[in-house]
Amino acid sequence: MRLLLLLQVILFTVVARAPTAAHAWRKEGHYMVCKIAEGDCQFIYDRDCHNMKGEKDMCVVGGINNYTAALMNSSAPSVDPTVSLMFLAHFLGDIHQPLHCGSVQDYGGNTIAVNWYNRTMTNLHRVWDQDIIEKAMKDYYGNDLSIMTNVIMLNITENWSDEEEQWEACPSKTKTCADKYAMESAQLACDVAYAGVKQGSVLGDDYFFSALPVVRKRIAQGGIRLAAILNRIFGDNNSRLQSI
């Protein structure tokens, strides 16, 4: 039962992490990604969690905390648990994409123009949001999302099983530990996403094969952590979760 639920959560996470205009860097929505200075490979909540107007708590980490709290109080008349769950899943996907905790100076790679396989002009943020996954889907999974999801599940149960407990660990029963997820992404942005990339770079196999393992693992971590958050919220009350 747990594996079936986790499979459904990971599939939901993959779909939910798809970029939408309302919450992208270029169109500021209600919550924004983390705003980190160029070259700073860490996330500090009090410094980095704000929107373009400087309003505190208005970032993806704040959004995750907000919608988790809403689901914990889903009986309140002002709370729509379906909307809260959708946004929670979306933001969990966002925060595990390294460039959502990238440099504020280049809008998380949005202003870094790159050439993808000498065929397509794009930008670095889109490469991580879309192009890497699309190439992997075409080359390895026959454009079948369920195959990709099953491969990630197999990695969780076999190759990453000794890491799973650490991924989902969170000492708080009422919070999400999303700060930790943002810190991981900020470090990966420095170490992998931005590594060797400049304006006009041609990104091909070398970049793809260095990035793909990160993308796969971050999707897995996002799914594991979403499942853990839902378990903390709903416990064994699966009927309540399924009714949302």
From TrEMBL:
It catalyses: Endonucleolytic cleavage to 5'-phosphomononucleotide and 5'-phosphooligonucleotide end-products. It holds the Pfam family S1-P1_nuclease. InterPro entries: PLipase_C/P1_nuclease_dom_sf, S1/P1nuclease. One of its GO terms (biological process) is DNA catabolic process. GO terms for molecular function: metal ion binding; nucleic acid binding; RNA endonuclease activity; single-stranded DNA endodeoxyribonuclease activity. CDD domains: S1-P1_nuclease. Keywords: Disulfide bond, Endonuclease, Glycoprotein, Hydrolase, Metal-binding, Nuclease, Signal. Residues 1-16 form the signal peptide. The keyword Lipid biosynthesis does not apply. It is an enzyme of class 3 (hydrolase). Belongs to the nuclease type I family. This is Aspergillus nuclease S1. It comes from Miscanthus lutarioriparius.
